[in-house]
Write a structure and sequence with these properties.
102 residues, two-stranded antiparallel sheet, single chain, 20% strand, 4 strands, alpha+beta
Length: 102
Amino acid sequence: MLREVASCIPACCQYAEWCYKQETPLYGVHGKILSSTGIQQGDVLGPALYAAAQHSILVGLKALEPDWVVGFLDDTNVCGKLDVLERPLQLLAFTLISLNAS
């Protein structure tokens, strides 16, 4: 996410690094756990940071030439003929699997 923020919205890069470069301790009744993935709930820039992180995925999907690609918050829509959609959907699945593995 930090790489995408630096690319898409460089004015927020320093803020994003300060907030997300290190794990954040979360405290609850059972002690402390470390939050090491994802954008923090309640972050006022959360939607913008998420959009920046999703931007390169949407650009990659659009390059495969489906009829329509749009992302809004955590929704991604890809429309087109079934034979054209196979490659964009494979790219999306591969990208999401890769993100979960890292």
